[in-house]
Amino acid sequence: MRNALIVIDVQNDFCPGGALAVPDGDAIIAGINARMGEFDCVVLTQDWHPAGHSSFASSHPAKEPYDVIEMPYGPQVLWPDHCVQGTQGAAFHPALSTDPADMIVRKGYNPDVDSYSAFFENDHTTPTGLGGYLKSRDISDITIVGLALDFCVNYSAVDGAKLGFKVKVIQDLCRAIDLNGSLGAALQDMSDAGVQLI
Ligand code: VGL
Ligand code: ZN
């Protein structure tokens, strides 16, 4: 058994003071840093959108942040502009240890498709390459932590399980946005997919 820690989107924009701040998002960072040494592989992900991305409410006339629209790939929540490529908001939080990372995966760079999951864009078919990377390194077990529990952590965990990895999510090392019951739904989706919530 070889295991990987996947650290989802611990970026300035998802932490207090950021454009899409997750309540207490920075409270998990010390605990994540402390666990990195326990894994054969550490992967960090970075939400990495071009300016004017289709997931931004500002790209849709008469829409507000947190409205939901129909995209060709399904419903899409519209967000405040966040994690724009090259900005301070898109940078990792300065407290996150990045030196132990073997791999950094950027996602959400396609202007027309959002990408919550570290494995696939929101069309559920276009791969980021992470699944192949982990398989080629003989990783069987993945542990997922980070932001936000009910969006990017949830999608990554469910996709990881679908790809055949044994998936754990450490809830203490995640924080949620919790939009209209999204947290309860995410916990249900993950347990239905066979993700171990610890
Ligand atoms: C995320 C909303 C939009 C996340 C990313 O990291 O959970 N949420 N982009
Ligand atoms: Zn995003």
Indicate the mean pLDDT.
Answer: 98
Distance between the termini: 19 Å
- Percent strand equals 15-25%
Small-molecule binders here are: pyrazine-2-carboxylic acid, zinc ion
Which structural class best describes the helix and strand composition? alpha/beta
The residue ranges in which pLDDT falls below 50 over 5 or more consecutive positions are none
Q: How would you sum up the global shape?
A: globular
Put simply, the count of helices is 4
Give me the side-by-side strand order of the main sheet: 5-2-1-6-7-8
Helix content class = 10-25%
The count of strands amounts to: 8
* SSE pattern, N- to C-terminal: EHEEEEHEHEHE
Report the radius of gyration as a whole number of Å: 16 Å
For the largest beta-sheet, the strand count, sense and barrel status come to:
6 strands, parallel
Task: Report what the structure shows.
This protein is α/β, with parallel strands linked by helices and 198 residues long. It contains 4 helices and 8 strands. It has helices at residues 29-35, 130-136, 149-162, 182-192; strands at residues 3-8, 41-47, 68-71, 74-77, 103-107, 141-147, 166-175, 196-197. The strands form 2 sheets. Strands 5-2-1-6-7-8 form a 6-stranded parallel beta sheet. Strand 6, helix 3 and strand 7 form a beta-alpha-beta unit. The longest helix has 14 residues, at 149-162. It is globular, with a radius of gyration of 16 Å. The two termini are 19 Å apart. The relative contact order is 0.20. The mean pLDDT is 98. It binds pyrazine-2-carboxylic acid and zinc ion. The site of pyrazine-2-carboxylic acid (VGL) has 9 residues, from helix 3.
